[in-house]
Design goal:
The chain is an alpha/beta fold. It has five domains: about 90 residues, Beta Barrel (OB fold (Dihydrolipoamide Acetyltransferase, E2P)); about 150 residues, 3-Layer(aba) Sandwich (Rossmann fold); about 25 residues; about 100 residues; about 35 residues, no CATH class. Strands 1-2-3-5-4 form a five-stranded mixed β-barrel. A five-stranded parallel β-sheet has the order 7-6-8-9-10, sandwiched between helices. Strands 11-12-13 form a three-stranded antiparallel β-sheet, with no helix packed on it. Strand 1 and strand 2 form a beta hairpin. Helix 4 runs parallel beside helix 8, helix 5 runs parallel beside helix 6 and helix 11 packs antiparallel against helix 12. It starts with about 20 loop residues before the first helix and ends in a 30-residue tail after the last strand.
Length: about 525
């Protein structure tokens, strides 16, 4: 029986004949085996620890619920990564598997990395973008300009986030406006439906209603991952934004984030704060611009007035003086003024002759005198008849009064007599007044007719030194051509008898010198000598 401390038989141990390898040899063999079998692999996992030394390489762990894989991304590959790994991010890493003999562990050398599921989401997003673009929802001609200064701004966002505070603060700094907030969920399953309902709800507000209708809309949300912003890529949100009658500004995510609502909106803002800046201008800038325009207007007006004043002075120098313009007309006026009295006298003579020969000749002074005499006779006759008429009227009234007194009792008679006496007195006073008024009116008409007769009478004209020349056979002589030489004429003056004369014919040039008076035989009684 052998002892426990005896050496075992080498032939009895399995693999006892295999050669002994060094640690380095074994590590090198394992490395060759692993690199040969796993020279290109894609591994999906959650990013754990991330280390970035100064060398520029990235060391991180990929893990799932049962294992951890150490990975390395060399500096050159790290610069080409589309996304930078962060702890907690689920990614798909592509590379090759190798070992690190110094620590007896295997590790993955990463050549590229992408978020897990991003490829599928991006493919679906690109397909949806192309389909909506084919419908024309992203066409530039559908974009509407934003109002220069909206009165009401509608904001679709979460009421509890920092986005709405940034928008309100920016609007207060630039140009305070009325802001209506429609609270919505900005991520999750309810996000797309609530955002679309908010856009449609703002557009459904009636103009002039109890709730003011916004002039511009802002759809805003802070930054986040593709999954967080996915609600703004939904088709219902894109169609609501494209169909909005109110101009819409999209301010979803940060400047590097892109969603489909950005393409359908009328304007895209890189941040919610930038959306507020796009919505309203700066009030101070407007006031400064207005002041500048007003200053330019005043300068333009002053320059225009100065130019016109200079132009007016230049034109004034070319105009003649007023006295030069009026000199000729003043001379003509003086000449016409000298001719006016003679022309008036001639015109009056012509009109007087026309009246004497025309229908007005029927209103001769004799006719007017006869009419006035007849009217005076009728007036005197009526005046003479008025007194007997009044007497007869008084007698008849007294008779009626006596008859009434006879029928009345003494007391009644006294009152009746008093009334009749009063009535009679009033009637007499009225008759006196009526007679006086009738006489006065008749006298006034008579005086007016006398004045009219005197005005039409040619005696007043003769009294001013004029004379009437008549032909011996009858008719008034109004022209020298109508009295040839030797025609017998009569000359009537204002006073005295008419003078008989003979016409010597018309004369021309200066009057002939007066001839020396010659003694002529005395005319026979009853005739007048010739004045010429």
């Amino acid at each position: 029986m052998s002892s426990l401390f005896d050496d075992p038989d080498p032939a009895a141990i399995p693999g006892a004949n295999a050669p002994a390898l060094s640690v380095s040899e074994l590590s090198a063999g394992v490395k060759r085996t692993i690199e040969g079998a796993f020279d290109h692999v894609r591994v999906r996992g959650e990013v754990g620890r991330v280390s970035r030394p100064r060398s520029g390489h990235i060391y991180l762990d990929l893990k799932d619920d049962r294992a951890v894989l150490a990975t390395i991304c060399w500096k050159g590959a790290a610069a080409r990564l589309q996304v930078q790994p962060e702890e907690g991010m689920e990614v798909i890493a592509t590379g090759r598997l190798t070992t690190f003999p110094g620590q007896s562990r295997y590790q993955l050398i990463i050549e590229s990395m992408e978020p897990a599921g991003v490829g599928a989401l991006m493919a679906m997003l690109d397909k949806r973008r192309r389909a909506l673009d084919a419908e024309g929802l992203f066409a530039p001609e559908r974009k509407r300009p934003l109002p220069f200064l909206p009165l009401v701004i509608g904001v679709v966002t979460s009421p509890s986030g920092a986005v709405i505070r940034d928008i309100l603060h920016r609007l207060a700094d630039r140009f305070p406006r009325t802001v209506l907030v429609w609270p919505v969920a900005v991520q999750g399953d309810r996000c797309a439906a609530e955002v679309a309902a908010a856009i449609n709800g703002f557009n459904a507000l009636p103009a002039g209603g109890p709730i003011p209708r916004p002039n511009v809309l802002i759809v805003a949300r802070g930054g986040g991952s593709l999954e967080d912003l996915w609600g703004f890529n939904e088709e219902i949100v894109v169609r609501a934004a494209a169909a909005s009658a109110i101009p819409l500004i999209s301010a979803v995510g940060h400047e590097t984030d892109n969603t489909l609502i950005d393409l359908a909106a009328d304007m895209r803002a890189p941040t919610p704060t930038a959306a507020a800046e796009l919505a309203v201008p700066v009030r101070a800038d407007l006031m400064a611009a207005l002041a500048g325009l007003d200053e330019r207007r005043m300068r333009a007006i002053a320059r225009a007035l100065s130019d016109r004043r200079t132009r007016l002075r230049d034109l004034a120098r070319a105009l003649p003086r007023p006295e030069q313009l009026l000199a000729e007309r003043i001379q003509r006026l003086d000449a016409l003024g000298d001719r006016l009295p003679r022309a008036l006298a001639a015109f009056a003579a012509v009109k007087r002759n026309q009246i004497a020969r025309g229908p007005a000749a029927r209103f001769a002074p004799g006719l007017l005198s006869g009419s006035l005499a007849r009217r005076r006779d009728r007036l005197e006759d009526r005046g003479a008849r008025l007194s007997p008429a009044l007497t007869r009227l008084a007698v008849r009234a007294a008779e009626r009064l006596g008859a009434v007194i006879a029928r009345l009792r003494p007391a009644q008679m006294v009152s009746a007599i008093a009334r009749e006496r009063t009535s009679l007195t009033q009637v007499g006073a009225r008759l006196d007044r009526a007679g006086a008024q009738t006489t006065r009116r008749a006298r006034d008409r008579l005086d007016a007719a006398a004045r009219l007769l005197e005005g039409y009478s040619h005696r007043a004209t003769l009294a001013r030194g004029f004379a009437i020349v008549r032909l011996e056979g009858g008719g008034t002589l109004i022209s020298a051509d109508a009295a040839p030489e030797g025609t017998a004429i009569n000359v009537e003056f204002a006073t005295g008898p008419r003078l008989a004369a003979r016409a010597l014919g018309p004369t021309t040039g200066a009057p002939a010198p007066a001839r020396k008076a010659q003694h002529k035989p005395k005319a026979r009684s009853g005739t007048q000598g010739s004045l010429f």
